[in-house]
């Protein structure tokens, strides 16, 4: 069969819906200043789908740092990959500050979070090593696992007894292969809002010999007394061997970093193919990230505002009978019972008649018969935004239960 013919018949689980969903449910355009209120299809909406946790995207000091970086250096600087000709004192300064902040000896900048995690896994392990990972790991972890030519075992989500059993299997294998064991989990699971059981996994080191890698994309900047991450929140900084964080969430930027011992960080610096053969992070972003990190560390009130909004939103939703699953972080999933057509109708009702924009998640990401509306609180949302959302959710929930969305569909 011709490859193009095959693709035409099988556009993929999400792509198969692109003809009717594109521009509305997928690839929507939010316009205007990055804020809780933005324009969608010509109308102002209250937006709960931006990973701008601390509200830094349009912070005046951040905007000024971005402007200065672009003015002084331009978008092209530095030219080349870091290893060859694209290094600078600012890249190194950011790495040193990040490593210190998250409690590690050194850090290495990565151009993209997704690509970075894939490459970290690919670099760390060989065919003799075994990976043990959480069943609900992010797609970037799964894609990194696909590159691994050795064995991998999955444990039930946040189930320490299941992790112990998989570690027993892994330990027997590495006795024969001479390899090692890498355990991978997340600090904050972005879909459910649950924290990974980092401290319990660290405790398993008393029984098994392994190294622990965590993806803390949602936890960096939001979790812990200083915002250093979920490993700080759970008081197990030393037990986490390799820490991965992104700039796309709390830092409102792009890129990522990995932090560990000086030796391991240098190993990654010289062996991560996605960085060795890629142009360095542009200087305006690096200059802007230095300012973002400074504010993240010095403006604890931003994190306090985030948590005030998140706590008020979640408390109000639970009081009104909504199922938020097992979230114990600021990520706020709202689970409803309904089918795909009901999910699309409900979401359109929220957007068109209530002016509320949030992400919708349905099968195959979650089980059939469930609808997840995913809300991302930020430090720049207000209590008025929370109240408006609570009232709207109560109304659409009543409509859903009455069968309204089975009988009434909306046209895009």
Automatic annotation (TrEMBL):
Known cofactor(s): pyridoxal 5'-phosphate
Gene3D superfamilies for the chain: Aspartate Aminotransferase, domain 1 (3.90.1150.10), Type I PLP-dependent aspartate aminotransferase-like (Major domain) (3.40.640.10)
A Pfam family the protein falls into: Aminotran_1_2
Pathway the protein acts in: Lipid metabolism
Phylogenetic placement of the source organism: Bacteria, Pseudomonadati, Bacteroidota, Sphingobacteriia, Sphingobacteriales
Family: Belongs to the class-II pyridoxal-phosphate-dependent aminotransferase family.
Protein's recorded name: Glycine C-acetyltransferase
Listed InterPro entries: Aminotrans_II_pyridoxalP_BS, Aminotransferase_I/II_large, AON_synthase_class-II, PyrdxlP-dep_Trfase, PyrdxlP-dep_Trfase_major, PyrdxlP-dep_Trfase_small
GO MF, any single term: pyridoxal phosphate binding
The organism's place on the tree of life at top rank: Bacteria
Keywords, sorted A to Z: Pyridoxal phosphate, Transferase
Aminotransferase class I/classII large domain sequence ranges: 46-392
Organism, scientific name: Pedobacter nutrimenti
């Amino acid at each position: 069969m011709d490859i193009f013919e095959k693709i035409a018949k099988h556009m993929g689980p999400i792509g198969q819906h692109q003809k009717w969903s594109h521009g509305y449910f997928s690839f929507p355009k939010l316009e205007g200043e990055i804020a809780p209120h933005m324009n969608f299809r010509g109308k102002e909406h209250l937006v709960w789908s931006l990973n701008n946790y601390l509200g830094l995207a349009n912070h005046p000091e951040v905007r000024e740092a971005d402007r200065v970086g672009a003015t002084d250096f331009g978008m092209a600087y530095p030219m080349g990959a870091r290893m060859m000709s694209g290094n600078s004192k600012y890249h190194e300064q950011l790495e040193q500050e990040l490593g210190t902040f998250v409690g590690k000896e050194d850090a290495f900048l990565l151009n993209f979070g997704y690509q970075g995690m894939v490459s970290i896994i690919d670099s760390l392990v060989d065919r003799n090593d075994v990976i043990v990972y959480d069943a609900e790991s992010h797609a970037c972890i799964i894609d990194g696992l696909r590159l691994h030519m050795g064995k991998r075992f999955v444990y039930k989500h946040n189930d320490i007894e299941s992790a112990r059993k998989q570690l027993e299997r892994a330990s027997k294998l590495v006795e024969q292969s001479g390899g090692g064991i890498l355990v991978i989990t997340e600090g904050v699971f972005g879909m459910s809002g649950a924290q990974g059981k980092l401290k319990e996994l660290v405790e398993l080191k008393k029984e098994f010999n392994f190294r622990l890698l965590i993806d803390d994309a949602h936890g960096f900047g939001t979790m812990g007394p200083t915002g250093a991450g979920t490993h700080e929140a759970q008081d197990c900084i030393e037990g986490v061997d390799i820490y991965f964080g992104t700039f796309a969430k709390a830092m409102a930027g792009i890129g990522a970093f990995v932090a560990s011992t000086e030796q391991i960080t240098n190993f990654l610096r010289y062996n991560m193919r996605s960085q060795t053969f890629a142009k360095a992070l542009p200087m305006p972003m690096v200059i802007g990230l230095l300012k973002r990190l400074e504010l993240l560390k010095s403006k604890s009130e931003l994190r306090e505002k985030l948590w005030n909004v998140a706590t008020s939103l979640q408390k109000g939703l639970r009081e009104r009978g909504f199922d938020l699953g097992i979230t114990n972080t600021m990520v706020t999933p709202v689970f409803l019972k309904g089918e795909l057509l009901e999910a699309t109708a409900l979401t359109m009702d929220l957007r068109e008649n209530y002016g509320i924009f949030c992400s919708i998640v349905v099968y195959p990401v979650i089980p059939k018969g469930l609808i997840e509306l995913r809300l991302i609180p930020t430090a720049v949302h207000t209590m008025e935004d929370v109240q408006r959302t609570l009232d709207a959710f109560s109304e659409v929930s009543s409509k859903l239960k009455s069968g309204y969305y089975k009988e009434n569909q909306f046209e895009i």
